[in-house]
Amino acid sequence: MRYEGALYRPPSEAYSLIIQATIGCSHNKCTFCSMYKGKQFRIRNTEEIIEDLALGRNHYKNVTRIFLADGDALTIKTEELVKILKFIKETFPECERVGVYGSPKSILNKTSEELSLLKSLGLGIIYLGIESGSDKILKAINKGVNSKEIIEAGRKVVDSDIELSVTLISGIGGKENSLEHGIESARVINEIKPNYVGLLTLLVEEGTPLYEDVESGRFQLLTPKEVLFETKNLVERLQVENCIFRSNHASNYISLRGTLMKDKDLILSQIEEGLKLSRLEDKDLFRRL
Ligand code: SF4
Protein backbone atom coordinates (compact mmCIF):
# COMPACT_ATOMS: atom_id res chain seq x y z
CA MET A 1 0.00 0.00 0.00
CA ARG A 2 1.11 3.60 -0.57
CA TYR A 3 1.28 5.45 2.75
CA GLU A 4 2.71 8.88 3.47
CA GLY A 5 4.23 9.40 6.94
CA ALA A 6 2.94 7.91 10.19
CA LEU A 7 -0.59 6.50 10.16
CA TYR A 8 -3.08 6.92 13.00
CA ARG A 9 -6.37 5.11 13.39
CA PRO A 10 -8.84 4.48 16.20
CA PRO A 11 -8.22 1.25 18.19
CA SER A 12 -11.45 -0.24 16.82
CA GLU A 13 -10.08 0.05 13.28
CA ALA A 14 -7.09 -2.19 14.07
CA TYR A 15 -8.15 -4.79 11.50
CA SER A 16 -9.46 -2.38 8.87
CA LEU A 17 -7.99 -1.70 5.48
CA ILE A 18 -6.58 1.79 5.92
CA ILE A 19 -6.53 4.13 2.94
CA GLN A 20 -5.19 7.68 3.17
CA ALA A 21 -7.83 9.90 1.67
CA THR A 22 -6.33 13.03 3.20
CA ILE A 23 -2.81 13.68 4.40
CA GLY A 24 -2.48 15.25 7.84
CA CYS A 25 -5.05 17.19 9.85
CA SER A 26 -7.08 20.11 8.53
CA HIS A 27 -6.75 21.92 11.87
CA ASN A 28 -3.33 20.82 13.15
CA LYS A 29 -3.24 23.45 15.89
CA CYS A 30 -4.20 21.67 19.12
CA THR A 31 -1.58 22.47 21.76
CA PHE A 32 -1.18 18.87 22.96
CA CYS A 33 -1.11 17.09 19.60
CA SER A 34 1.95 16.14 17.61
CA MET A 35 0.33 13.51 15.39
CA TYR A 36 0.41 15.32 12.08
CA LYS A 37 2.87 18.10 12.83
CA GLY A 38 5.21 17.09 10.02
CA LYS A 39 2.46 16.93 7.41
CA GLN A 40 1.01 19.75 5.36
CA PHE A 41 -2.72 19.04 5.12
CA ARG A 42 -4.05 18.10 1.72
CA ILE A 43 -6.85 16.11 0.18
CA ARG A 44 -5.63 13.43 -2.19
CA ASN A 45 -7.03 13.14 -5.69
CA THR A 46 -10.00 10.82 -5.81
CA GLU A 47 -8.26 8.87 -8.61
CA GLU A 48 -5.29 8.16 -6.32
CA ILE A 49 -7.58 7.07 -3.50
CA ILE A 50 -9.41 4.75 -5.85
CA GLU A 51 -6.08 3.35 -7.11
CA ASP A 52 -5.12 2.58 -3.50
CA LEU A 53 -8.45 0.88 -2.91
CA ALA A 54 -7.86 -1.24 -6.02
CA LEU A 55 -4.38 -2.12 -4.69
CA GLY A 56 -5.99 -3.14 -1.41
CA ARG A 57 -8.44 -5.34 -3.28
CA ASN A 58 -5.52 -7.13 -4.91
CA HIS A 59 -3.82 -7.72 -1.56
CA TYR A 60 -6.67 -8.63 0.79
CA LYS A 61 -9.43 -11.20 0.37
CA ASN A 62 -11.93 -10.41 3.10
CA VAL A 63 -12.22 -6.72 3.89
CA THR A 64 -15.11 -6.08 6.25
CA ARG A 65 -13.99 -2.63 7.39
CA ILE A 66 -12.27 0.26 5.65
CA PHE A 67 -10.93 3.33 7.43
CA LEU A 68 -10.28 6.47 5.42
CA ALA A 69 -7.34 8.25 7.09
CA ASP A 70 -5.75 10.75 7.90
CA GLY A 71 -7.09 13.41 10.23
CA ASP A 72 -10.29 14.67 8.70
CA ALA A 73 -11.48 12.70 5.66
CA LEU A 74 -14.98 14.10 6.11
CA THR A 75 -13.68 17.41 4.85
CA ILE A 76 -13.57 15.92 1.34
CA LYS A 77 -16.32 17.29 -0.90
CA THR A 78 -19.43 15.16 -0.76
CA GLU A 79 -19.40 14.47 -4.51
CA GLU A 80 -15.88 13.02 -4.19
CA LEU A 81 -16.78 11.01 -1.09
CA VAL A 82 -19.74 9.62 -3.04
CA LYS A 83 -17.37 8.40 -5.79
CA ILE A 84 -15.08 6.80 -3.20
CA LEU A 85 -17.92 5.11 -1.30
CA LYS A 86 -19.53 3.85 -4.53
CA PHE A 87 -16.20 2.36 -5.61
CA ILE A 88 -15.89 0.66 -2.21
CA LYS A 89 -19.41 -0.77 -2.54
CA GLU A 90 -18.68 -2.19 -5.98
CA THR A 91 -15.16 -3.42 -5.22
CA PHE A 92 -15.58 -4.68 -1.66
CA PRO A 93 -19.11 -6.10 -1.52
CA GLU A 94 -18.20 -7.77 1.79
CA CYS A 95 -17.33 -4.41 3.44
CA GLU A 96 -19.71 -3.78 6.34
CA ARG A 97 -18.50 -0.37 7.43
CA VAL A 98 -16.44 2.58 6.27
CA GLY A 99 -15.10 4.87 8.99
CA VAL A 100 -13.53 8.35 9.07
CA TYR A 101 -12.30 10.91 11.54
CA GLY A 102 -14.50 13.99 11.28
CA SER A 103 -13.75 17.38 12.80
CA PRO A 104 -16.67 19.43 14.18
CA LYS A 105 -16.19 21.92 11.36
CA SER A 106 -16.21 19.34 8.57
CA ILE A 107 -19.37 17.77 10.06
CA LEU A 108 -21.06 21.17 10.30
CA ASN A 109 -20.10 21.90 6.70
CA LYS A 110 -22.15 18.91 5.54
CA THR A 111 -25.92 19.18 5.32
CA SER A 112 -28.06 16.54 7.03
CA GLU A 113 -29.05 15.31 3.56
CA GLU A 114 -25.38 14.89 2.61
CA LEU A 115 -24.68 12.89 5.77
CA SER A 116 -27.70 10.67 5.09
CA LEU A 117 -26.50 10.11 1.52
CA LEU A 118 -23.04 9.11 2.78
CA LYS A 119 -24.67 6.79 5.28
CA SER A 120 -26.71 5.13 2.51
CA LEU A 121 -23.46 4.54 0.59
CA GLY A 122 -21.72 2.81 3.49
CA LEU A 123 -20.25 5.49 5.77
CA GLY A 124 -20.96 3.68 9.02
CA ILE A 125 -19.01 5.52 11.70
CA ILE A 126 -17.51 8.94 12.36
CA TYR A 127 -14.85 9.41 15.04
CA LEU A 128 -14.97 12.83 16.64
CA GLY A 129 -12.30 14.07 19.02
CA ILE A 130 -14.09 16.24 21.57
CA GLU A 131 -11.16 16.29 24.02
CA SER A 132 -13.18 18.31 26.59
CA GLY A 133 -16.64 19.75 26.97
CA SER A 134 -15.32 22.83 28.75
CA ASP A 135 -15.17 26.01 26.66
CA LYS A 136 -12.34 27.27 28.84
CA ILE A 137 -10.27 24.15 28.12
CA LEU A 138 -11.22 24.03 24.43
CA LYS A 139 -9.92 27.57 24.10
CA ALA A 140 -6.75 26.80 26.06
CA ILE A 141 -5.90 23.81 23.87
CA ASN A 142 -6.71 25.75 20.70
CA LYS A 143 -9.28 23.23 19.51
CA GLY A 144 -10.79 25.83 17.19
CA VAL A 145 -14.40 25.16 18.20
CA ASN A 146 -16.55 25.65 21.29
CA SER A 147 -18.80 23.18 23.09
CA LYS A 148 -21.92 24.49 21.33
CA GLU A 149 -20.41 23.70 17.93
CA ILE A 150 -19.25 20.29 19.15
CA ILE A 151 -22.74 19.46 20.39
CA GLU A 152 -24.30 20.63 17.13
CA ALA A 153 -21.85 18.56 15.09
CA GLY A 154 -22.32 15.48 17.27
CA ARG A 155 -26.11 15.71 17.15
CA LYS A 156 -25.99 16.06 13.38
CA VAL A 157 -24.13 12.76 13.06
CA VAL A 158 -26.41 10.95 15.51
CA ASP A 159 -29.52 12.28 13.76
CA SER A 160 -28.19 11.05 10.40
CA ASP A 161 -28.02 7.54 11.86
CA ILE A 162 -24.27 7.27 11.29
CA GLU A 163 -22.61 5.80 14.39
CA LEU A 164 -20.69 8.36 16.41
CA SER A 165 -17.63 7.58 18.48
CA VAL A 166 -16.27 10.45 20.55
CA THR A 167 -13.09 10.75 22.57
CA LEU A 168 -12.27 12.79 25.65
CA ILE A 169 -8.82 13.29 27.14
CA SER A 170 -8.47 12.81 30.88
CA GLY A 171 -6.24 15.41 32.45
CA ILE A 172 -6.46 17.84 29.52
CA GLY A 173 -7.49 20.67 31.83
CA GLY A 174 -4.61 20.05 34.24
CA LYS A 175 -5.08 20.36 37.99
CA GLU A 176 -6.67 23.78 37.68
CA ASN A 177 -9.58 22.70 35.49
CA SER A 178 -10.00 19.04 36.33
CA LEU A 179 -13.37 19.47 38.04
CA GLU A 180 -14.69 21.64 35.23
CA HIS A 181 -13.48 19.10 32.65
CA GLY A 182 -15.53 16.32 34.25
CA ILE A 183 -18.68 18.39 34.69
CA GLU A 184 -18.64 20.04 31.28
CA SER A 185 -17.60 16.94 29.37
CA ALA A 186 -20.50 15.01 30.91
CA ARG A 187 -22.86 17.82 29.88
CA VAL A 188 -21.68 17.65 26.26
CA ILE A 189 -21.85 13.85 26.11
CA ASN A 190 -25.35 13.86 27.62
CA GLU A 191 -26.51 16.28 24.95
CA ILE A 192 -24.90 14.48 22.02
CA LYS A 193 -25.81 10.94 23.08
CA PRO A 194 -23.07 9.24 21.03
CA ASN A 195 -22.85 5.48 20.44
CA TYR A 196 -19.35 5.26 21.90
CA VAL A 197 -17.33 7.34 24.35
CA GLY A 198 -13.62 6.66 24.65
CA LEU A 199 -11.35 8.13 27.30
CA LEU A 200 -7.68 8.63 26.59
CA THR A 201 -5.28 9.99 29.20
CA LEU A 202 -3.14 12.98 28.39
CA LEU A 203 0.36 12.20 27.21
CA VAL A 204 2.57 15.24 26.88
CA GLU A 205 4.84 15.06 23.90
CA GLU A 206 8.04 16.98 23.43
CA GLY A 207 7.81 19.70 20.81
CA THR A 208 4.19 20.61 21.55
CA PRO A 209 3.12 23.94 23.12
CA LEU A 210 1.66 21.96 26.02
CA TYR A 211 5.06 20.42 26.71
CA GLU A 212 6.49 23.90 27.13
CA ASP A 213 3.64 24.82 29.50
CA VAL A 214 4.36 21.74 31.61
CA GLU A 215 8.09 22.47 31.64
CA SER A 216 7.54 26.07 32.69
CA GLY A 217 5.01 25.10 35.39
CA ARG A 218 2.11 26.89 33.68
CA PHE A 219 0.29 23.56 33.31
CA GLN A 220 0.18 21.07 36.14
CA LEU A 221 -0.35 17.44 35.21
CA LEU A 222 -2.75 15.28 37.19
CA THR A 223 -1.44 12.39 39.22
CA PRO A 224 -2.88 8.95 38.31
CA LYS A 225 -5.25 9.16 41.29
CA GLU A 226 -6.41 12.61 40.26
CA VAL A 227 -7.11 11.22 36.79
CA LEU A 228 -9.31 8.56 38.37
CA PHE A 229 -11.13 11.13 40.51
CA GLU A 230 -11.76 13.14 37.35
CA THR A 231 -13.06 10.02 35.58
CA LYS A 232 -15.35 9.28 38.53
CA ASN A 233 -16.64 12.82 38.46
CA LEU A 234 -17.38 12.45 34.74
CA VAL A 235 -19.00 9.01 34.87
CA GLU A 236 -21.21 9.94 37.83
CA ARG A 237 -22.78 12.66 35.69
CA LEU A 238 -23.26 10.64 32.50
CA GLN A 239 -26.91 10.07 31.60
CA VAL A 240 -26.86 8.42 28.22
CA GLU A 241 -28.46 5.13 27.23
CA ASN A 242 -26.93 2.41 25.05
CA CYS A 243 -23.56 4.07 24.89
CA ILE A 244 -20.41 1.96 24.99
CA PHE A 245 -17.93 3.52 27.38
CA ARG A 246 -14.27 2.60 27.02
CA SER A 247 -11.18 3.64 28.84
CA ASN A 248 -8.92 0.86 27.67
CA HIS A 249 -6.37 2.71 25.57
CA ALA A 250 -2.68 2.14 26.31
CA SER A 251 -2.52 5.68 27.71
CA ASN A 252 -4.98 4.90 30.51
CA TYR A 253 -3.96 3.94 34.03
CA ILE A 254 -6.75 1.40 34.50
CA SER A 255 -8.96 -0.29 31.95
CA LEU A 256 -12.71 0.38 32.06
CA ARG A 257 -15.40 -0.87 29.71
CA GLY A 258 -19.15 -1.10 29.88
CA THR A 259 -22.43 -0.05 28.35
CA LEU A 260 -24.15 2.99 29.79
CA MET A 261 -26.43 3.26 31.63
CA LYS A 262 -26.72 -0.39 32.63
CA ASP A 263 -23.04 -0.76 33.61
CA LYS A 264 -22.59 2.68 35.16
CA ASP A 265 -22.45 1.37 38.75
CA LEU A 266 -20.02 -1.34 37.69
CA ILE A 267 -17.74 1.21 36.03
CA LEU A 268 -17.90 3.43 39.12
CA SER A 269 -17.03 0.51 41.39
CA GLN A 270 -14.05 -0.33 39.14
CA ILE A 271 -12.87 3.26 39.49
CA GLU A 272 -13.26 2.98 43.30
CA GLU A 273 -11.16 -0.20 43.24
CA GLY A 274 -8.58 1.58 41.09
CA LEU A 275 -8.37 4.40 43.60
CA LYS A 276 -7.33 1.89 46.27
CA LEU A 277 -4.37 0.63 44.22
CA SER A 278 -1.11 1.73 45.74
CA ARG A 279 0.60 0.98 42.41
CA LEU A 280 -1.04 4.08 40.99
CA GLU A 281 1.38 6.14 43.04
CA ASP A 282 3.94 5.46 40.31
CA LYS A 283 2.67 7.44 37.39
CA ASP A 284 4.43 5.67 34.56
CA LEU A 285 4.53 2.09 35.78
CA PHE A 286 1.10 0.98 34.70
CA ARG A 287 0.63 2.73 31.43
CA ARG A 288 1.41 0.55 28.48
CA LEU A 289 3.16 3.30 26.52
S1 SF4 B 1 -6.06 16.68 18.13
FE1 SF4 B 1 -7.12 16.16 16.23
S2 SF4 B 1 -7.87 18.15 15.47
FE2 SF4 B 1 -6.31 18.62 16.99
S3 SF4 B 1 -4.41 18.84 15.80
FE3 SF4 B 1 -4.49 16.70 16.50
S4 SF4 B 1 -5.45 15.56 14.84
FE4 SF4 B 1 -5.86 17.75 14.49
Automatic annotation (TrEMBL):
It comes from the Bacteria. Residues 9-246 form the Radical SAM core domain. Its cofactor is [4Fe-4S] cluster. Transmembrane segments: none annotated. Keywords: Iron, Iron-sulfur, Metal-binding, S-adenosyl-L-methionine. InterPro entries: BchE-like, Elp3/MiaA/NifB-like_rSAM, rSAM. Pfam families: Radical_SAM. This is Radical SAM protein.
